[in-house]
Write a structure and sequence with these properties.
heterodimer, A: mainly beta, 7-stranded mixed beta sheet, B: mainly beta, 5-stranded mixed beta sheet, globular
């Protein structure tokens, strides 16, 4: 139980294009999902909290117009990196919070984004 | 959420118990201790969590001191596949508490044959 998937697992795009990453909770409903970013040799940094049916809450320093988050259903949240640049290349990881087990977060496998 | 302190790295022999310490001296009464691990290039994996009692599951045991200022994650029989970065995080549980997980640098555990 408590499986979270992400798609795609890796993506390469040209500078200036937009990339959409999907995060799905496969066997539970998640009213809240989270998006993290991880650069090489660094820890995970929380980007935003995604709430089903409402606007995402972004952490300080994260551009909400660049990283668009949509949480349209209880099992799906998407992160769109708009007008991507090489400095956006990173490992993007989502998590979904289970409403059982004291709202433990379960993580997806991550998406490796490379912007050329 | 309370800050945690972990050693940056540890080694463990395969088949032996791995004991990973974590200090959380400013933990509040309603904060839980969570442990996750991240194997290279994968998303973090939930291991275990607890409030004040010791906890055990199929993956590990969590020992929390009586004053709750520190804890130890125990992998009873470490294998090579347990090589990963282990994160100790304290946070308030419950829907209305926000639920953010703030990751520190963790402990890089290397299990050696």
């Amino acid at each position: 139980g408590a499986v979270v998937s992400q798609h795609p697992s890796w993506v390469i795009c040209k500078s200036g294009t937009s990339v959409k990453i999907e995060c799905r909770s496969l066997d539970f409903q998640a009213t809240t999902m989270f998006w993290y970013r991880q650069f090489p040799k660094q820890s995970l940094m929380l980007m935003a909290t995604s709430n089903e049916g409402s606007k995402a809450t972004y952490e300080q320093g994260v551009e909400k117009d660049k990283f668009l988050i949509n949480h349209a259903s209880l099992t799906l949240s998407t992160l769109t990196v708009t007008s991507a640049h090489p400095e956006d290349s990173s490992f993007y990881i989502c998590s979904a919070r289970s409403e059982t087990s004291l709202y433990t977060q379960y993580f997806g496998p991550g998406t490796r984004l490379t912007v050329l | 959420d309370a800050k945690t302190t972990q050693p940056p790295s540890m080694d463990c022999a395969e088949g032996r118990a791995a004991n990973l310490p974590c200090n959380h001296s400013t933990i509040s009464g309603n904060e839980y201790v969570y442990w996750y691990r991240q194997i290279h290039s994968q998303g973090p994996q939930y291991i275990i969590h607890g409030l004040k009692n010791n906890e055990t599951n199929e993956m590990a045991s969590l020992i929390i001191t009586e004053d709750r200022k520190s804890s130890t994650l125990i992998l009873p029989h470490a294998t090579l596949r347990d090589t990963a970065v282990y994160y100790c995080i304290v946070r308030v549980a419950g829907y209305n508490q926000g639920g953010k997980l703030i990751f520190g640098q963790g402990t890089e555990l290397s299990v050696k044959p």
